[in-house]
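Exam revision sheet. Question 4 asks you to relate a sequence to its structure. Input first:
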Amino acid sequence: MPRTLDIGEKIAQLRSFYKQEGRAPSYAEMAGLFGYKSKNAVYNPVNKLIDLNYLIRSAKGRIGFTAKITGGIAILGSVQAGFPSPAEEELIDTINLDEFLVARPEATYLLTVSGDSMIEAGIHPGDLVLVEKGGVPKKSDIVVAQVDGEWTMKYFGRDKEGVYLDPANSSYTRIRPERSMAIGGIVKAVVRKYA
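Answer key, structure tokens:
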């Protein structure tokens, strides 16, 4: 008796694979993922998922994911932030926020903000900051740094006295390391969730 094709289960397995690996599986990997003994058994579910626009097949036969698997969000146009203007909703493209915000996934991490020392830079308690390790900060980059054993997030600067960190809140003062300072990464984006 032929096995029934549970597309929902296959989609969940592919999403899980994408979250772990950041890419589409090969046919051999899909066979293992779906519990099949051979790569040939994968062709039927793959064709069904292509028909449903979850997968695409390149001219060379390689499988790729669409935004239905990777979690892309539709870009419908632009909105005027000044004076109101007529708007037309038109699907322009789909975007995956990871691809938009993260240039180097292997060097990127998120931190939850606590404290208000960067509030004038638009970074509030509870926000998430996307931080990329390994870069050399420039003046006015916002960095996550360990200063004399304590972690903080501030504007990076350098003058004739050496490096310093500036807050974005007039209630706080400039920090200069007394013993050591190590840069943990440069802030690349801020994420705030409303309601």
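Marking note for examiners. Strands lie at 55-57, 63-65, 73-75, 93-95, 108-112, 128-132, 142-147, 150-159, 162-166, 181-191.
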